[in-house]
Amino acid sequence: MPEPLPETADVPSSRAVEAGVQTLTLETTPPIPVVVEKSATKKLGIVGWIAIIWIVTIVGSAIFASLLWIPRPDQKFLALAGDGPSLAHPFGLDSIGQDMLSRVVYGARASLLVSVASVLFGLVFGGILGLIAGYYRGRIDTLLSYTFNVFLAIPQLVLALALVAVFASDPAVTVGKRELWLVIAIGLVSIPIIGRITRAATLAWSQREFVLAARSMGAKNRRIIVRDVLPNVLPAMFSISLLGIAVVIVLEGGLSILGVGVPTSTPSWGNLIATGRNELTKIVGAAPQVIFAPSIVIFITVLSLNYLGDVVRARFDVRDSAL
Amino acid sequence: MSPLRRRKEVSRTIAAKPSAARLLEVNELNTAFKTPRGLARAVNNVSFVLDRGKTLGIVGESGSGKSVLSRSIMGLLPKQNVVRDGSVLFDGNEITHLSNSAMREFWGTEMAMVFQDPMTSLNPVLKVGRQITESLHYHLDMDKQQANETALALLKSVGIPEAERRLSEYPHQLSGGMRQRIVIAVALACGPKLLFADEPTTALDVTVQAQILNLLQQQQRERDMAMVLVTHDLGVVAGRADEIAVMYAGQIVERAPTRVLFAQMRMPYTEGLLKSIPKLEQASHTRMQIIGGRPPDLVSPPPGCKFAPRCAYAQAKCHSEEPPLVEADSPGHYFKCWFPVGTPEGKDALERNLAAKLPQALAAVGGDTNAAAKVEAEV
User: How far from chain centre, in Å, is Cα B24?
Assistant: First the structure.
């Protein structure tokens, strides 16, 4: 980074000014590392592939969990309760003898279902609202942007907590219904975030000349939005959704700890941590793997999603600047 | 396939009317933008007529309102923050205050526009073929095969080699000149009667410019299409336009059939534009003739003639009273000047200014850059 320019008024001798200029030029001249940028944006790189493999593994094992060579998540090995990792049970067992690997794999189902569904929910509604606000601008944009900002001012966790608590906190509600409300609550929370990103990208893209060109060829607004603007905005939306899925996985965990996540009868990464959190404070017979197994899996998943989101964004940037 | 694709009902009100000789008639068109500082009058009292199959060249420097004029005629400007009045008659239809949905009857099929920069006027994520066939599907109700065949024929007619392959390429795979040909093909797809070419060659390489202009001219002749060719280069319109309108500060300051304009120009601004084109027969390192200064602020333009502060001929009268647009000796030649070029009054005025060593006069006659800088500082 160049130093701030020396203020000529305060520097009496011209030599000092020259020296300042010299350091400036010296510091600004190093060549831009083009090669590094290229390899980072054009190729996925090892990290990118690891991230993809991880995500594919997680999603694949969640879908085909019942076909895998693992015990049922509620099968109890009472004799081994609280044991640490072993060959037969790589992630160890919890305090009532349930296999942690199995619980994490089955837990991925609920976690991924809730996070993907709620991000899709936010993507559809936030995306449509963002496109409308960014394309039409004017009053409708003011109205929508204010609404987004108001919703963003409310802490997401609190808003989601309130919605689930009001509509689905009754212990009698079924797992499916609770999950549906989780999706709606988290989805609602993500609408303003995705909406604002979409709006910003739409604002930029709808100023482009090809939108005017489409208009001058008699295309209707809705057609221009769908055919001309949306395909260009999509990469930004996709990138934010990958990040969003990561955020929602963590958010669902938070809601579980507060007691309004996926009901504990169905394992999810969030409620595994929530139900296991007293393991850490136990003095005798603690089973820390109950916390660590899902936490580490969440950590790697979130990291992978973030990384892939970044890769998508970087590719999108390159394509934009190349035109 | 887009789920939103709709076949348009054929409800043409325009086709029924008998076609008048005059395709486009613009009467006292004004267009202003609301800005925080006040109204910026980008188009001021512009009138002209354009017959079928003819070409009107609109010439002026940056910021003279050329592009706004063509967009205003087409009704492409946003409705918010824009004040428009006057009248635009297209093929006998009053289209000045039509809604966007009513204008869609005209856009694409009756009038189309070729934009300045082919890098930005094509959608980067749609294949070229798709961008052409889209309006064919939509306006002309063609099925997929018909549209593809038409698109192929269009690409061939705008001189694109290997047209079949190009149809399935993206804009970034093509060169600038090629892209502009595509843009032209898109604009011509539905056979418009009037084509606006908004500086179609500004973003292109000089060697490609002539090709594109020739292409436009050839297409225009084949289709008997009228064209409004907007440019800042008098050389571009010299051999191609039937009539030329010179714009300055949103006004037409001189308008004449091309031959007449070049033979007997009356407006000092037109003279300045022409003189500022370097000539081949001049010795090398000849100082370029320039018009000092910049176009006026459109929010608060000078009270008299808008060009007066930069004009070599300007007298006291020019700074206080705005000259009217009057007809010259030859028919169809209009100009807006108190001391026109090529008249005794004009000659007197110039001599008086030179004697008084007015910087704008020195800049215009001797190409004196110091004087030009002085004008720049004053304007």
Answer: 14
> Between 3.90.1150.10, 3.40.50.300, 3.40.50.720, 1.20.5.170, what CATH number should domain B22-247 receive?
3.40.50.300
Nearest to A232 among B107, B125, B139 (CB): B125
Q: Which fold has domain A45-322?
A: MetI-like fold (1.10.3720)
Q: Give the list of residues 6+ apart from residue A146 with CB closer than 8 angstroms, or none.
A: none
Locate the domains of chain B by residue range.
22-247
Rg (CA), chain A: 26
Residue A220 contacts B, CB cutoff 8 Å: yes
pLDDT at A42 over 80: no
- Residue in B61, B58, B72, B63 with CA at minimum distance from that of residue B28: B72
pLDDT tens-place string over residues B306-319: 999 999 899 999 99
pLDDT in tens, B194-248: 999 998 988 888 888 888 999 999 999 999 999 999 998 888 888 889 999 999 9
Would the CB atoms of A232 and B74 count as touching at under 8 Å? no
Instruction: Write the pLDDT tens digit of every residue in A271-315.
Output: 898 888 877 777 777 788 888 899 999 999 999 999 998 888 887
For chain A, what are the domain ranges? 45-322
Q: State the best of B98, B116, B120 to mutate against chain A, taking most chain A CBs within 10 Å.
A: B120
A209 lies within 8 A of chain B by CB: yes
Within an 8 Å CB–CB cutoff, is residue B188 touching chain A?
A: no
Which two three-digit tokens encode residue B347?
A: 């000659």
